[in-house]
Amino acid sequence: MHFGDHKIEQDAYTILxxxxxxxxxxxxxxxxxxxxxxxxxxxNGTYFTKNAEHANRNVRGIMDFEKVxxxxxxxxxxxxxxxxxxxxxxxxxxKLKSHITFDDGRTFEDLKSDGDKLxxxxxxxxxxxxxVCCTPEIPPxxxxxxxxxxxxxxxxx
Length: 157
Prior knowledge:
Number of helices: 2
Distance between the termini: 36 Å
Number of domains: 1
Strand content: 25-35%
Helix content: under 10%
Structural class: mainly beta
Order of helices and strands: EEEEEEEEHEEEEH
Radius of gyration: 16 Å
Oligomer: single chain
């Protein structure tokens, strides 16, 4: 099976949490370099487009991918900024950048807070589990529990 110029090899792809109308697949042409290319499908899963290159993966093939619950089409990924160095020397320290999409991965933008870029740790460095979620309202007394977290009032925008 081929996704553009990426041939899927055994143990070299990950099917990600998707929506009712799109499948997200991370493909890596070399399972020893822990990066992949993110593809999204059309509504019936027969055509895929390349959406992001150099997506971060760990040694178990898990990609830095967080789907925002309760809002269709929004998810976050981490990409490897120094990907050329990592391709040449897989043991190199990865420099990650976090990106957000509001349209099922068709376009990505930097994740920012007050104009500053945010770089989040994700499932490849899991030390605490939980979902990225959306709720219509957070009671003020609950906000104290979120002192070390970023809360967006506009679906991440």
